[in-house]
Description:
Elements lengths: L18 E2 L8 E2 L4 E4 L3 H5 L2 E2 L3 E2 L7 H5 L7 E6 L3 H12 L4 E7 H8 L3 E2 L1
Parallel strand pairs: 3-5, 3-6, 6-7
Antiparallel strand pairs: 1-2, 4-8
Amino acid sequence: MSMLGIGLTLAGTVALAACAPSGEGETATLETGTVVIDVRTPAEFAGGHLEGALNIDVQSPDATQELAELDPDGSYVLYCRSGNRAGAALDFLQAQGFDDVVNAGSVQEAADETGLAIVD
């Protein structure tokens, strides 16, 4: 198993960006180019995820190898069930030199923050 047990299953690229709050009490906006990543298991992802999100299973043994394929200059928004796994993934990516990574917390918090719909 990898250091974090993080794996990557690319479901498609999303033309979105890191959360940038647009004002107090308003939903954040997403900038073009950021990838939204759900770091839960495939079964959790299948039960509901943000529209257009990639699925990165943090429990996969191939995680570090697959994460190395991501562009360290890219922008990423991470989320999971509670924010804990997204936090671990954030720490790992930052240790690898990724600068533009945001932990958006849970699925619902990420939906609220980004304005993206939760889909099956």
